[in-house]
Amino acid sequence: MRLEKRTRTSRLALVLAPVGAVAFTLAVCSLLVLWAGAPLGQTYALLFKGGFGSVFALSETLTRAIPLILTGLAATVAFKARLFNIGAEGQLYAGALAAVAVGGLHGGDGFAVAPWILFVLMVLAAALAGALLLLGPALLKARLGVDEVVTTLLLNFIMLLFVSMMLDG
Hints:
Elements: H1 11-36, H2 40-52, H3 55-80, H4 88-105, H5 115-133, H6 135-144, H7 148-168
Helix pairs in contact: 2-3, 4-5, 4-7
């Protein structure tokens, strides 16, 4: 038995794959909810209401989902290049710290710019910080052949601890 790359994927398969994944997830979660003894309909109604039931709930859902979605999209760039960057979470933390640092300079004794310029500067700082964080693993892979999975995974823990230190002192 061997694996072969598909040359063509049918439209039906392209539709059924994500629909099947969602259906399977709902089925497994439903079994767990029933196993816990909770009412299935009420559980899903509350889940939906908590995420989408009001403008505030929707804004909170989007606030939490958008960074994860963008991080996932960024990881696909590396995966398409056949590089296994497992450090997307660490890059997200580095970008968040850089954006907060640039935003913290605004006003007061720092610099004052229009809000849209500040937003652009914060996004650029975040992107630059995320990219610079991968400079070490990239050099280790290019020069010494070190596996990028290990180095980027370890960077996640380093950045998590660094962010914790920055927040807690």
